[in-house]
Amino acid sequence: MVPFRLPPLRSLLAPLIGLTLFLAVWQGVASQIDTSLGKFPGPIETWQQFTNLIEEYQQEKVREQKFYEQQRIRNEKKLQENPNAKIVWREYRGMPTYLDKIQRSLITVASGFLLGSLIAIPVGLLIGISKTAYSAINPIIQVLKPISPLAWLPLVTIVISAVYESESPLFDKAYLTSMFVVMLCSLWPTIINTAAGVGSVTRDMQNVSRVLRLSPLTHLRKIVLPCTIPSMFTGLRISLGIAWMVLIAAEMLAQNPGLGKFVWDEFQNGSSQSLARIMVAVVTIGIIGFLLDRLMLLAQRWVSWDKTATLR
């Protein structure tokens, strides 16, 4: 059994000191900035608005429970009066809360990132293995890679509006628009890094594959993929970071009810609380981005064959 060891004090103290200094600088700078909506919010005002948003979420959940409880009582009464009465359950359609918007953003970015990865990894493997495929596809990648999400957004919006027509749509158009923009902007680092990982397969490993007469599929599974994983995950981490950044802009313009739309709505609102609420969203976006990166790092440690490698 491996004994449990506490992390060294220095490894805990250094981030704590850095965070304290950051908060102090933030508070000091914020107190010197006057805007048309009042003082720029510091950490204290931001925390107060965060607690307000949590209270709004709790109040909304109470309203939702009351709505369903009243509906249940009304339906039971109707059944007592007439056992054959037609019962209709109505869905609660309250205002989405801050936590609902976070959830919406996470679902959108996960969808776009997964869809992009499903395309990027096979393409990266293909152009890494085949020089002909690399010559054919690489110029397209280099042209499409630097395109801004703001340029993709009008095209994606128009295409989805033209193609996706349904009387009872499974997904709303704002979600699809944001998801495809995220996908288009985030898949390039995974393609490039996966191809670079395939190029890192040494000649010795290739000779081993030839000597053992491995089939192409076995060669891919036993030789290429294990050598490619570190580089592939580097690409996936970069792609996920880009996906999260792009999402906010996409949600702002596509009016997808996530964190991006929350920031835009608060900007348009222009109340005395808006700046602090936007700062809550900014901090939330940063923390979630950090947690997503740590999640990918854990996944890389789990699938990596070299457990002794230092991953950061």
Automatic annotation (TrEMBL):
Membrane topology of the entry: Multi-pass membrane protein
InterPro entries from the UniProt entry: MetI-like, MetI-like_sf
Annotated PROSITE patterns: ABC_TM1
Keyword terms of this UniProt record: Cell membrane, Membrane, Transmembrane, Transmembrane helix, Transport
Gene Ontology biological-process annotations: transmembrane transport
Membrane-spanning segments: 105-127, 147-164, 176-202, 223-254, 274-292
Keyword Iron appears in the UniProt entry: no
Boundaries of every ABC transmembrane type-1 domain copy: 102-296
Subcellular location: Cell membrane
PANTHER family: ALKANE SULFONATE ABC TRANSPORTER-RELATED, MEMBRANE SUBUNIT, NITRATE IMPORT PERMEASE PROTEIN NRTB
Family designation: Belongs to the binding-protein-dependent transport system permease family.
Name of the protein in question: Nitrate ABC transporter, permease component
Source organism (scientific name): Hydrogenophilus thermoluteolus
